[in-house]
Specification:
The chain contains 17 helices and 14 strands. The relative contact order is 0.18. The chain is an alpha/beta fold. It has helices spanning about 20-25, 35-40, 45-60, 115-125, 145-155, 170-175, 195-200, 210-215, 215-220, 250-260, 290-305, 320-325, 330-335, 340-345, 375-395, 395-400, 410-420; strands at about 85, 130-135, 160-165, 185, 225-235, 240, 245, 265-270, 275, 280-285, 315-320, 345-350, 355, 365-370. The protein has a domain at about 85-325: Aldolase class I (TIM Barrel, Alpha-Beta Barrel). Helix 3 (about 45-60) crosses helix 17 and helix 5 runs parallel beside helix 6. The radius of gyration is 21 Å and the shape is globular.
């Protein structure tokens, strides 16, 4: 069992410490709406899970047996995560130089397809609202990709697909079952085919321009579907997997023009991530030794040139991580509360297992169970107990101290609700067009 973390009791004077106190003065980092997870958790269908979670945490912190070795799983709120990342496969037809999951690709580990569908159905029954089909491999290589997408839509789930673009025709074939709240994002990271080839090393003859040329087919199949161009910004000196990464920051504006001309709905920029040497967490791979000031200045200039290309039909997004890098606020997003509450609301299901966070995909300290951890009621109940203990025992303050966490803001917000549970009654209901992607 992991080392126990001392739990702050509600009658402890230190428990009055607020999220704003923890983040410090001047924390004015503006979140993109897609990263405003606190707002999303007040939506109908998610708010009940939030209320029950806060009530459970309050009860745990006030319990007489707060030092119990194992938490009572029957007391854990009976809710599946609101949102999951779903890795359909470990197979990939690229060899990207900047891949943080290189060691798990093409391992041959697979789902039992019927158990995968059973897992999804059970989670949907218990409160799952959205699935981001992503990572670990290229999802369109899954033999039953189309069937799985249509099955999840039949369950009433919101669906997002993150792909490298080589399966665009397969995505176009299922676009008809998706709706305006669903989305597709292609990981392309370049403005020229020369840089694309150097960064992605496709196993077959795929070109950046051919991938982009197929986007109008997806849009034609479903004009309401949002299709995004994802761009991981890299720089000279970036390194992962013991290799230097191809620099692409000089093609940000060029890629923006390509994305707009190719009928993408938006382009989104995020900073390059590497693995921390201590615990393998995903962290922004920049430091003073890589000429940080000059890199940030060059990125800012390119982003400024990109932003002016936005139109009413084409958006330019800077991820929360990139904003933190450009605005010198990385350290503020690295200051985590002791408990990561989002482990309850968002998880990762992979052929390699069920994990507490995308940052810890395939890392043993973030593992909640194997690939069948929620495939039937008995397994689901056991996994609730494992999740409860990990929420208590996983110390985010230390484990995630170098992570520029997308969930930093919402974790502190939930911590504030636990410390002041009466505030739940003051939250406004969010009845806008639902977005359950976390």
């Amino acid at each position: 069992m992991a080392e126990k973390i001392p739990v702050t009791r509600l009658d402890d004077p230190a428990s009055t410490r607020s999220a704003s106190d923890a983040l410090g003065e001047g924390n004015d980092l503006l979140l993109d709406s897609i990263h405003d997870f606190a707002n999303k958790l007040t939506q109908t269908g998610a708010r009940e899970a939030l209320q029950r979670y806060v009530d459970w945490q309050v009860a745990q912190r006030n319990a007489e047996d707060v030092d119990a070795v194992e938490l009572d799983p029957s007391q854990v709120p009976d809710f599946a995560p609101v949102s999951i990342n779903l890795d359909l496969t470990t197979a990939c037809n690229y060899q990207c130089d900047h891949c943080v999951d290189l060691d798990i690709l093409n391992t041959g580990v697979r789902y039992d397809h019927d158990k995968l569908l059973s897992s999804l159905a059970l989670m949907a029954e218990r409160g799952l609202k959205s699935v981001i089909v992503i990572g670990g491999g290229e999802p369109t290589l899954y033999p039953k990709f189309g069937e799985t997408i249509r099955f999840m839509k039949s369950l009433g789930l919101q669906i997002a697909i993150v792909s490298n673009g080589t399966g665009n025709l397969k995505i176009a074939e299922v676009a008809d079952c998706m709706d305006k709240n669903d989305w597709v994002r292609l990981s392309l990271d370049s403005g020229s085919d020369e840089t694309f080839q150097a960064m992605h090393n496709p196993r077959k003859s795929f070109s950046l321009y051919d991938i982009c040329a197929a986007v109008p087919k997806i849009r034609a199949a479903n004009p309401d579907l949002t299709v995004g161009f994802s761009y991981i910004v890299t720089w000279r000196g970036a390194n992962i997997n013991d290799r230097d990464i191809v620099e692409n920051l000089h093609e940000i504006a060029q890629a923006t023009q390509l994305a707009r001309d190719s009928q993408f709905s938006y382009i989104s920029f995020k900073p390059f991530l590497t693995r921390d040497e201590v615990n393998n967490a995903e962290v922004i791979g920049i430091n003073e030794q890589t000429h940080k000031e000059a890199i940030v200045s060059a990125i800012q200039q390119q982003v400024d040139d990109a932003v002016i290309m936005a139109t009413s039909d084409f958006k330019v997004h800077r991820s929360t991580g990139l904003k933190a890098l450009l605005e010198g606020q990385i350290q503020k997003l690295e200051k985590q509360p002791q408990q990561c509450h989002m482990q309850f609301f968002r998880q990762v299901l992979s052929p390699l297992g069920l994990y507490n966070c995308p940052v810890y995909r395939n890392q043993p300290h973030g593992k909640l169970g194997d690939k069948n951890a929620v495939s039937d009621t008995q397994a689901y109940e056991a996994t609730r107990g494992v999740a409860a203990n990990l929420i208590r025992d996983f110390n985010a303050t230390t484990n995630c101290e170098k992570v520029t966490c997308l969930y930093n803001d919402v974790n502190w917000w939930i911590e504030g609700l636990i410390q002041n549970p009466d505030a739940m009654a003051t939250l406004s209901d969010n009845n806008t067009d639902p977005d359950y992607f976390l």
